Amino acid sequence: MPGLVALALAYVLSQFYRSFLAVLTPQLTAELGADKADLSLASGLWFIAFGLMQFVVGVGLDRYGPCRTAGWIFGVATTSGALIFASAQTPMAITVAMCLFGIGCSPVLMASLFIYAQRFDARQFAVMTSWLVAFGNLGNVVGASPMAKAVDQFGWRTVMLVLGAMSLSIALGVLWLVRDPELEQPANSGFGGYITLLKQPGLWAIMVMMLFCYAPAAGIRGLWAGPYLTDLFAADSLVIGQITLWMAIAMVTGSLVYGPLDKIFNTRKWVVFTGNSVVLCVLLVLAFNPVPGLTTAAALLVVLGICGTSYGVLMAHGRSFIPPHLVGRGVTLFNFYSIVGVGLMQFVTGRVVAVQPDTSSPATYQILFGTYAAGVFVALVIYLTSQDSAPAGKLS
Q1: CATH 1.10.150.80 fits 2-177+190-383, yes or no
Q2: CA-to-CA distance for 123 and 160, rounded, in angstroms?
Q3: Count of helix runs (H) and strand runs (E) in the chain
Q4: What residue ranges do the domains of the chain occupy?
Q5: Phi then psi dihedrals of residue 234, to 5 deg
Q6: pLDDT class for 115, splitting at 50, 70, 90?
Q7: Phi, psi dihedrals of residue 214, rounded to the nearest 5°
Q8: Which residues 6+ apart lie within 8 Å of 115 measured at CB?
Q9: Is 240 a residue whose pLDDT tops 80?
Q10: How confident is the model at residue 185, as a pLDDT?
Q11: CA 172, 249, 54, 58 torsion-angle sign
Q12: Structure pTM?
């Protein structure tokens, strides 16, 4: 339907806005004096603002539907953020703009998943979610080498103004084209629904996995790839753009591959566990040898991108335990953990890097990758206690 197309285009911009800072690292450092701590704060606050908005978005979806919830929030906040970013004179302005981008992007994916949950077969949820995430990850692609080339030719301020105009146009398309499904209005249609969900102990192990599964791919692709490649391989913005482009394409590919795996193997838990175990292995390799050569480092980042996109299958795992009248708040609760996990890890890794005697040394990046590895390891151990859910019914 046209409304889902409009939401998908908005989701492309959502993925772009969370990841483009890595490419702008040299320009923002040279022109605004933004250091690694400034960029880590700005990137982390994008995810924190996005995550906290999930509670507002969940109530909005269940009460008012996806059209108004997504259209108004996305249009007002992202357009304002682009204007502030384009006119920034200090790192603080970049931070404010990134917060607005986080707020604006917060309802887009959830609005689509809300429509999927209400209108389509639950057995298709993982495939549809994964493929939407794959399409949205084109924003990561645009935010890599194409963004670097556009900035090189037109300047980053002009590019941001164009992005603001695109955001406003797509928001108007959402308001015009999206049709709300019929909504139930249960007695606990407010924030109390989240309390109901949090009282279900079976969801906690899944939520812990949500907290860490997306953080390495999103955090490294969205921020740390730039400083890592600059500091240890003397890469310029075009090389950074090329490698982050490969990583972004890998994230698209990974989402497409993950999509049907739960139906092929009739398990969601073990698909997620296996993929994230590979992520853990990649992080450990980079932690023990952060300078393996540019080609090898790029290949490892590509593998991380492919295997670090289990979001769709994990969301389907959690969705299978959510009552129908709490779908809006359920999917946003899981998304809250996914996004806030990225933001928290940005703060933690930013602090870890900032306190090192030499923030550009290989030892610093050993600690950086080791921090991500520790989080994924803990999540995998806890996730082992979760109950599996199979698209085709009981597991044999």
Answers
A1: no
A2: 40
A3: 21, 0
A4: 2-177+190-383
A5: 55, 35
A6: confident
A7: -95, -15
A8: 3, 4, 7, 66, 181
A9: yes
A10: 56
A11: positive
A12: 0.78
